[in-house]
Amino acid sequence: MLGPVILAASRSDKMRRFVSAAPGTKQVVARFIAGESVNDVVPIVQDLAARGLEVTLDVVGEDITTVEQSYAARDAYLELIGRLKDLGLGTRAEMSVKLSMFGQSLDGGHELALANVRPVVAAAAEIGTTVTLDAEDHTTLDSMFAIHEELRKDFPQTGCVIQAYLFRTEDDARRLAESGSRVRIVKGAYKEPAEVAIQDKAEIDKAYVRIMKILMDGEGYPMIGSHDPRLISVAQELARRAGRKLDEYEFQMLYGIRSEEQNRLAAEGHRMRVYTAYGTDWYGYFMRRLAEKPANLLFFVRSMLTKG
Question: Which own/partner pairs from 114-120 qualify as long-range (CB within 8 Å, at least 24 positions apart)?
Answer without folding.
Answer: 114/147, 114/150, 114/151, 116/70, 116/71, 116/73, 116/74, 117/74, 117/147, 117/151, 118/151, 119/74, 119/78, 120/74, 120/77, 120/78, 120/81, 120/95
